[in-house]
Every structure is written in structure tokens, then in C-alpha cells.
Amino acid sequence: MIEDIKKACQVMSEGGVILYPTDTIWGIGCDATNEEAVRRVYEIKQRSDSKAMLVLVDSPVKVDFYVQDVPEVAWDLIELADKPLTIIYSGARNLAPNLLAEDGSVGIRVTSEVFSKRLCQQFRKAIVSTSANVSGQPSPGNFGEISEEIKSAVDYIVGYRQEETVRPKPSGIIKLGKGGVIRIIRE
């Protein structure tokens, strides 16, 4: 696992794209602050960059760095979540502009899964996490379901957890609006 993390960080710091296990499904990832790397992820997914992608961080403290004004309720939601939870925040900052939604918002998930958390800690920046599939095709439930097209398009494939056959669920998604308004997008 340590070698995987070192190599993945090296590839991302050079602007590369990785395929890696997350706290939910396998993801395509890159440095979330690198506009060119983010553009490559959209290309790999064959998706227009008007559809925003989420990012992973390893601790709630990092959310503050990427969001101008974190609503108070967000801290409770992060602390109380009993399964992976992506929160969409307004006023994103310090991220590649082509990563954000048209309204300037971004989805951020604090990961507690061993590999993705250590990867975020080592990399010291937010990491893009988007399902490892071509846009419009079903999300792969495990590594074995990822298409050759995706595997051959990335710069590095993490070896850790490739043999697992469990089908993790995608995260819940909540959008936080003005005045603490909460909208559930996916349970």
C-alpha cells in the first residue's frame, strides 16, 4: 500500500491521472488544483466539463481551505455521517476552475477509508474522485468491472484492493444553500 501511495502521489504531482480505490467505488483521480489534469479526466470520461466532479480530502480542516464560507451545519453533518457523505458547497476556492459547477460550487467528501485517506494526507491537496467509467455507462462496482478503455487511459493504476469483489454504494450527496438550507441530492 505504501508503494502505491508514493507512486500515485508522484504521478499526480506531475499532472498525471490515477485509478484508485476510494471510500465508495473505484475512482479516476488527479490533483484537484491542476486545470490540465482535470481536463484530462473529463476527456477520459468523455464528458463535458460543465458537469462538475467531486474531490476527496482527508480531514474536515481541509474543507475550510477549499470553501470560502463553510456553513456551521456542515461540521455537524461531517461529524455525524455514518456513511460516506459528499457535501456540495457554494463559493469554492483554491481548486482548478474547470472542476467547479457553473454556480461556483464544489462537492467535497472527507474520506475515512484507509487508502484514500492516506493518499490525501501524503498528497496534501484535494484529489478529484469521479467514477471509473465513460460518462453515461454504469459505474463499476469493483475493479474487475472497470473497462479496458478507462484502464489504458490513466497514467497509474493502484494495485491495492483490486481483488475485492464487494460492491460498495456511492456516497450520499447533500447541497448546502444560503442560510443553511439543506437539499438532499442522493441518499
From TrEMBL:
Keywords: ATP-binding, Cytoplasm, Nucleotide-binding, Nucleotidyltransferase, Transferase, tRNA processing. GO terms for molecular function: ATP binding; double-stranded RNA binding; L-threonylcarbamoyladenylate synthase; tRNA binding. It catalyses: L-threonine + hydrogencarbonate + ATP = L-threonylcarbamoyladenylate + diphosphate + H2O. Residues 2-187 form the YrdC-like domain. Its EC number is 2.7.7.87. Its main location: cytoplasm. Pfam families: Sua5_yciO_yrdC. GO terms for cellular component: cytoplasm. InterPro entries: DHBP_synth_RibB-like_a/b_dom, Sua5-like_dom, TC-AMP_synthase_SUA5. One of its GO terms (biological process) is regulation of translational fidelity. The keyword Nucleotide-binding applies. The keyword Methyltransferase does not apply. It comes from the Bacteria. It is found in: Cytoplasm. Belongs to the SUA5 family. This is L-threonylcarbamoyladenylate synthase. It comes from Bacteroides muris (ex Fokt et al. 2023).
